[in-house]
Design brief:
alpha+beta; single chain; 3 helices; three-stranded antiparallel sheet; Glutaredoxin
Length: 84
């Protein structure tokens, strides 16, 4: 999935603005593959390489949450997350 992010970011001219980092394990396997966006702290789960363009366009490009993949935002209470 990291390769899909890097290729799509390069194709959109965003490689210098967005860093992609790999990790071997984040949270439980329940939401694998995971994408964490910083500094916002948004967490996406069940992400596949087919979702990469949509995350880049919608979350990074437009600043909108990708609702069907969104698992929450670090630092918010459950009630605050529900309101998003």
């Amino acid at each position: 999935m990291a390769e899909a992010f890097q290729a799509t970011l390069a194709a959109r001219g965003l490689s210098a603005q967005v860093a992609v980092r790999r990790t071997s394990h984040v949270g439980g396997d329940k939401y694998a593959g995971n994408v964490l966006s910083f500094p916002s702290g948004d967490w996406y789960g069940y992400v596949t390489p087919g979702d990469v363009e949509r995350i880049i366009d919608q979350h990074i490009g437009a600043g909108e949450i990708v609702g069907d993949l969104w698992r929450g935002r670090m630092g918010l209470t459950p009630e605050e997350q529900i309101r998003l």
